[in-house]
Every structure is written in structure tokens, then in C-alpha cells.
Amino acid sequence: MDGKKDHRDWGLSTQAVHAGEESPNPYSSITTPIVQTSAYTFPDTSHLETFMARRREESLPPYQEYGRYGNPTARALERKLAALEGGEDAVLLASGMAAVTMTLLTLLRPGDHLIVTQDAYRKTRAFCTTFLRRWQVDVSVLPAGDYEGMEAAITPRTRFIYSETPTNPFLRVLDLERVAEIARRHGLTTIIDSTFATPYNLRPRDFGIDVVIHSVTKYLAGHNDVLAGVVIGPREVVDPIREARGTFGSIVDPGAAYLILRGLKTLTLRVRQQNHTALALARFLEQHPRIRRVWYPGLPSHPDHMVATRLMRGFGGVVSFEIEGTGAETRRFVDALRIPRLAPSLGGVESLVTIPSLMSYYDAPAEERERIGISDRLVRFAVGVEDTEDILADVDRALACLKS
Ligand SMILES: Cc1ncc(COP(=O)(O)O)c(C=O)c1O
């Protein structure tokens, strides 16, 4: 039997430590071993034949035979991730983008229609509006929070509503109950990229969402040292994606799976600290005279504060803000910071800071930047697990550098 325990009654921290892993493990190891193999052997041809005849049965683990179809270390991680998000099953992929693209490529057919929100990871939006359109999938891009527009955009060919929550970089929080209700009425499947939330802060499936995607690279792995993605949901969604993974080959190495299993054990501790620091940072920035505007769902000034308060346990570790001043001054502020590293990504133990106009939107046409609201004064600060006081002091000092 693949997966020994029913962990559904445990709290999230207990699940993060124990769910999905064998007990006892092979060799009575406390930790899940890294099964470093490319293929699996059979004792003789009759075992091979029995395996081939039964390999699609649910009671068999979805690996054996060959490493592209799965791996026991990665499988333990899939079970843990499914438990953490309250999903039936999970499929692990080589990156967050692999999870996004494989999900949509597997589930959509030419002629289908997809609704996606505008404030989303740029590569996701670009995949929908270029690749998918090239494959004759009709795509409507709508502002986050426009529920009437979402419903009005639905056609008889609409199959999915896709969004992120909170979104990147303006941290819009969708009213997931409302989205799920619209989808249910029209027989649609809902997909939420919940990378910025983490299951500690928000579990989309608790509010009726069907499928959850994560860039595991971020909070789940949590240490800025590994890339992966996951799709969590009902077997009828996860199984075809797993099948497609066996063809596309977008798998996670067992060593990387082990690092993620290890990183997940401290998920709730890390995210609690990140929530705490980000809220303190957002409040500090909002009252600072050199700050023009702050986006953080934990602030009453954020457009989705009420929704976030209703849906989220904490508001996450990312704060976006605009400097009162020029793009050059914004760069001076970022260069003066000592703790956060200037890098893309978020969610790890090290704080990271980016200027989106210089990174993910560097080659975006001015019209696109304007439409999304990406100015050259916009900063995205992803807090790590450093001391809150040190981060605030660092930001305060870097802002003081702007006075001269
Ligand atoms: C919300 C969101 N989804 C997906 C991705 C892509 O994840 P990965 O970098 O693991 O491919 C990112 C990356 O920043 C992201 O922010």
C-alpha cells in the first residue's frame, strides 16, 4: 500500500513533520531515504508481467519500472504535500512553471476557453496568452477582483478559472468562495496558484477550489536552494498530469525531493516568522515619509484586506511598495540594503528584494507595465526568517540614505 497513515486529523505542523512518510522507514531510518536510482528491477519475467498487467491499479505506487514515472522519495513528498493542502493526491514537477504549464496543457483542448486573472506571475500570463492561444485555446485575462467580469466572460466553451492568491506582485486576494460558487454554477474547474499563501496561511480547497498549484521552490522548500512545483487535487486531475509527466519527463531528482521533505518540516515555524516580520515591515513602511504606497493584505489600506482577513490565517511574507522619489532613488535604496539579497524568488530563509521593472518586467513593453502597474519605483521585499528588528533597522537605514 502506498502511504500508510491517514493524517487528516493532525494539525498542520504535525502533518508537515510526519505526513506522507513511511513509519518505519526502510532500514528503520528516522528520515525518508534518498532512493537514488534511475530504474527498478524485477526478480524474474513473471513478476514483470504481473506488474505490467496491474501497474495502473490504485493500490500500487505510481513508480517502479523507471525513474521518469516516479520515485519513492518524491512519492513521500507528494503524499505530504497532498496532506498539507487537503487534496486527494499530488504530482511533483520540476519547477513551478512546469506545474502550471503541464496542468494547462494536460487539461485543456483546442477550442476550450480559459479565464485567468491579470495580476499573475508574468510567465504564467505569457504562457496563457502566447502558447495556449497558439494551440487554439481562447484566453480571457481579467483584473483580479472583477467577479462580475469573470462571470460575464464565461462561454459554453469555458472550462477553467485560473488565478493566484495572493497575486504577484500586488498581493491581491481573491474571494475564493465566490470564485468557487461561480465555477460551480457553470460547471467549471477552478485552479489556484497558492505559492504566496502556503497552506499555513490559506488552503484554497477549504473554500471550494478544485486544484491547487505551488511553486515549491518558494515557501514549501523554503531554503532558496531547490526548484520544484506541485499540482494537488482530485485523482481525476492529478492522474492525467502524472501520466503526462511520464511523457514530458519533467521530474524532480530524488536528492531535491529529500531537500524539500526536510525543508517542509519547519514550514509553519518559518511562515509564522515571515508573516510577523512582513506585517511589521508593511506597517513601518506605510507611516514612513519616503514611501509612496504599500501593498500588503494585512493592512486595512489594501483593496482585499477584508477578504484576506476572512480567508487567511496570516498575510504572507511579501510586501510590495513604491518609494516616494525617482527610479534612481529606488535603486539607491535597494543598493543600500544590507540584509536582503538582490535576487528574484521569495519564500526562503534569506530575505530577497527585487525591483520588478528591472527583473521580471525588464523586457516588458511600456504599455504592459502601465496596464499592470509596474513602475520603476516599485520594490518587492520577500522577508526571510531573520530577526524582525534587524530587517526594520536595515530598511530604516537604507531609506535614510535617500535624504542626501
Ligand atoms: C506565483 C508563482 N507561480 C509560479 C512561479 C514559477 O515557479 P518556478 O520558479 O518554481 O518555476 C513563480 C515564480 O516566481 C511564482 O511567483
Can you lay out the helices and strands and say which pair or pack?
Blueprint: H1 12-18, H2 45-54, H3 72-85, E1 89-93, H4 96-107, E2 113-117, H5 122-134, E3 138-142, H6 147-153, E4 158-164, H7 176-186, E5 189-193, H8 198-201, E6 211-215, E7 229-233, H9 235-248, H10 254-264, H11 267-286, E8 291-295, H12 305-311, E9 318-323, H13 327-336, E10 341-342, E11 352-354, H14 366-372, E12 378-382, H15 388-400
Parallel strand pairs: 2-3, 2-4, 4-5, 5-6, 10-11
Antiparallel strand pairs: 1-7, 6-7, 8-9, 9-12, 11-12
Helix pairs in contact: 1-3, 3-10, 4-5, 4-9, 11-15, 13-15
Pyridoxal-5'-phosphate binds near residues 95 and 100.
Structure description:
This protein has 404 residues and is an alpha/beta fold. 40% of the residues lie in helices and 14% in strands. The chain starts with 11 loop residues before the first helix and ends with a helix. α1 (12-18) packs antiparallel against α3 (72-85), α4 packs parallel to α5 (122-134) and α11 (267-286) runs parallel beside α15. The radius of gyration is 22 Å and the shape is globular. The chain contains 15 helices and 12 strands. The mean pLDDT is 94. It folds into 2 domains: 12-264, Aspartate Aminotransferase, domain 2 (3-Layer(aba) Sandwich), CATH 3.40.640; 267-403, Aspartate Aminotransferase, domain 1 (Alpha-Beta Complex), CATH 3.90.1150.10. The chain has helices at residues 12-18, 45-54, 72-85, 96-107, 122-134, 147-153, 176-186, 198-201, 235-248, 254-264, 267-286, 305-311, 327-336, 366-372, 388-400, and strands at residues 89-93, 113-117, 138-142, 158-164, 189-193, 211-215, 229-233, 291-295, 318-323, 341-342, 352-354, 378-382.
